[in-house]
Amino acid sequence: MEKKTISISFDEYSSLDELNSQDRNLCLEAEKAMKNSHSPYSGFRVGVAVQLESGKIVYGSNQENVAYPSGLCAERVALFMIGSTYPDDKIMTMAITAQTDQFLIKEPVTSCGACLQVMAEYEKKQSQPINVMFYCLNGAIIRTSGIKSLLPFAFEETRLEK
Hints:
single chain; 6-stranded mixed β-sheet; 6 strands
C-alpha cells in the first residue's frame, strides 16, 4: 500500500474590494444573473457570470421545476449555453454566487458535483484551466485556478479502456 496526499491551492479574499476590477465586475455580473433564477420551490437563487476569451460574458441562473430532477443548476445552464452557442470561445473565469431569504449564507457556496464534472469536461475540451470564483454576497470570495483543485478525481475517458 502507498499512502498519497492531495492538496489544493486557492486564494481567499475578504471582500470584493480586494479583487482586481475585472474579477470584481464578474462577481457583480453573477449577482445580476441571480435575478433570472427560477427557484420558487427552494427559494435558493444562484447566479453565474462566465467571462469568455473574446470578452463576452455569458449568464446562467438555476432553473427549478416542480419535478425536481428536471431543473438545472446555474453553472450548467451557462456552460451548456456556451457549448451550443460559442463552442470555440474559451472559458476564462466563472463567478458564482447564491442568495436566499430563508437563512444567512455566511461563506461562499461551492458548486455541486455534477456541475464540477461538467466544468472539468469543458476545461479538458479547451486544454486550458478555468478560473472559478465562489462569491459570498457582502463576504468572502474563494478563487481557484483550474477545476482539478475542486475535483481531483474527475471522471475522464482516459481512465477507460478503448
